[in-house]
Fold this sequence. Notes:
The protein is of the alpha/beta class.
Amino acid sequence: MEEHIKKLTLTAREYLNKPINERIRKCKEQVWISYNQVQIIMDELEDLYDYPKKDRMPNLLIVGDTNNGKSTILRKFMDKYPMYLDGYTIIPIIKISAPIAPSHNALYEKKLDELLVPYGVNESASKKEYQVKKVLQDIETKMIIIDEFQDIFHGEIKQQRKFLAGLKHLGNDLQIPIIAAGVWEVQSVMSADPQIANRFETLKLKKWNPDIEFARLLASFESTLPLKEASNLHTKELFKFLYDMSEGLIGELAIILQKAAVFTLKNNKEKIDLDILNSINFVKQSLRRR
């Protein structure tokens, strides 16, 4: 047991002797685990954040499966550059979700809504565009992030192209990088407009393979759980079971282990085993889609 406790994170160790309800709450918190793919994306975001202004700014498209960590990575990066006051409000990074009804007008309204800037619904798109650009210049925004980019699929092709054109003009005029993130199909939408496709470098966040890296990931997750006994999630039987349940998706794995840790504590146990994994209420993503 002592060897296991030494492997826990400092925070996890601090919770071991706290009341069960506090340990359960801790298990439900989101944890940050870095790994090679994440570091590549974080380094690229860092490089773009400090990019000098020029006529053709580089942009980035992050693609991957649903619940494989894209939004978590973006939130973690934004945490490094929060809003602050310097005589006036500075917002270094603006993040929105792509509008379900895409158009250049919807793009500007989304940004104005995020910034709590009033506008007339019936005003022209060009006037809203002017508002957006003026506000982003005033608050010294250095990067725009658009998450859930696949949502523009819900619109007509003509509207999608207007949205992409508005995005291009915004980046050009403000001379700041634009980061888009979405599922794999986003690439096909981008490729519909060669001018847009050529402006976005693509980084792929792939599923995990059942290899040594996944075993290390399991060990990293286990180190964050305030359980007094070693579950040894990386061992063969649990490894295979957890990989099959998560289907190689880190977000799915996080949910499984959260549910398992909570179930463990509620049943006065201190480690996760196969019986517990078989007892939690979890349906893997491929079956949920059906």
